[in-house]
Amino acid sequence: MNIRPIRSEIDYDTALARVAALMDAAPESPDADELDVLTTLIERYEADHHRIDAPSPAEAIRFRMEQGGLKPKDLEPILGGRSRVSEILHGLRPLTMDMVRGLNRHLGIPLESLIASSAPPSRTGSGRRSGKTVRWLVERGLMRDGDALDQFIARAFGGSASPVLFRRGAASRTNPQSDPLALQAWCAAVIHQAGRTGWAPLTAPRPTERNLREIARLSRHDDGPARVGTALAGLGIALVVLPHLPATRLDGAALLGPAEAPIVGLTLRYDRIDNFWFTLMHELAHIRLHLSPNRRMILDDLSLPDADAIEREADELATNSLIPPDIWTAGKIGPTAKARDMIAIAAAAGVHPAIAAGRWQRQHGDYRTFSKLVGRGEVRRQFADFPMR
């Protein structure tokens, strides 16, 4: 076990990638010990460098309700009568310690989110103007200095300060520890950026499986990621590459913007060719299969299990669009596969060898074999506006 301190964003990304590779470590094994140490180092680095304003207790409760499809009446046994639930959800009544314990025990809401200050929020939104979320947006030219975060979000979502992305089923694969306000801010920034690209949404049908295969074949070019934006624009889909906000833990998102126009947002959290193409195809699968006026946004942390049918369907379509099942099966790729096998099956599918290598790694839970084939460090540099540190 050779673990180094995390001193930079590059170290941070490397540590995150290593944690993803160790998630299935056996208890009390050397890998499990390494995972514990890395997790502590990552948490310390995030606390020092990625700290943002914590969500209010009301925001934390609403986020968990939206994740679990709960209604206000479901909270009455924990919080009291209907009027008390309403007051708490609107930030008009502080939580008692009995309520805090009940919400933590029955809904799994972190204690630190529930014991934060529960004073009623400013109606002007000025309480949201501080912290690294706003600074992050302003430094990237995404938000005007002096704007309140509420206003920035409301402009993106057509004037609503309570966007629909956290309705039941919308945020279907996000980490419970992710900050709800930061998730909203990132989605708003993606929508704003899409409007700046000159993208002309079409009224054409959703992308077909043939369209997805054509996009996947762009991966065979060294500059394939850089070509994707133009190809998607031809289908009426905007591509926005935007780093994830601190405490969001996102890989990508599929969104419906103005006039129901589809948008793919990618964070490039992991700078690898295989990860870029799988995340892209996963979000395109959501656009093809799942987005609708009632489900306008789907956010994805792909390091989490595919816990519901929507995510399993998107994973399957993404996987098969990159390498069709008949080609993968004919390749007879087993545990003892060699690099030449990855290259051969990728050639048969017309895609980059990193895609075959990454699929093999995920299938076998082995992220060391073929580590030189996955194209580490080859994606971010293809996007001129992406910060490299």
From TrEMBL:
GO biological process, one term: regulation of DNA-templated transcription
Annotated ranges, domain IrrE N-terminal-like: 275-324
InterPro entries reported for this sequence: Antitox_HigA, IrrE_HExxH
Record-level Gene Ontology MF annotations: core promoter sequence-specific DNA binding
Source organism (scientific name): Prosthecodimorpha staleyi
Protein name: ImmA/IrrE family metallo-endopeptidase
